[in-house]
Amino acid sequence: MNREKPVRTVAVLVRLLPEERNLLKANAGMHGMTMSDYIRQTCLGIRLRRTPEEKRRLRELARIGVNLNQLARWANTYKRAAEAVEVVTALASLERRINELTMSSLAGEEEA
Question: Do residues 99 and 57 lie in contact, with contact meaning Cβ atoms separated by under 8 Å?
Fold first, then answer.
């Protein structure tokens, strides 16, 4: 079964200031896209591809979530007070790491 990819034949002309074009080009580059793809996807409401930094943060958050789930499972299985201190310490460490990721994410958005 041979599916033919649709060919785009219609062009739309948009006038921009040089600064606006530079901003579009930079934003498209951050998403690893051409300007045409970036404009098409943002205007049509299609979810943009994630940047490598976003992917890294999502993997890190997923790992943190797995650790948190393991700690919760352990806490529900072994409810001893002496070991609860270790759990609280680990949770505090996870919370610090999540805050670091959040702060670096916000700093990255301000730079863009």
Answer: no
Q: Distance between CA 19 and CA 90 in Å, rounded?
A: 47
pLDDT score of 19: 97
Contact call for residues 88 and 68 (beta carbons, < 8 A) = no
Same domain (yes/no): 79, 100? yes
Q: Indicate the DSSP class of residue 15.
A: -
Q: What are the residue ranges of helices labelled H in the chain?
A: 18-30, 35-43, 52-77, 81-111
Domain span at 86: 52-111
Q: What residue has token string 């001893």?
A: 80
In a domain, 1, yes or no: no
**pTM for the whole thing?**
0.45
Mean pLDDT for the chain overall: 80
Q: Which pair of tokens denotes residue 25?
A: 């080009």
- Higher-pLDDT residue of 106, 31: 31
Among residues 71, 70, 52, 67, the alpha carbon closest in space to that of 98 is found at 67
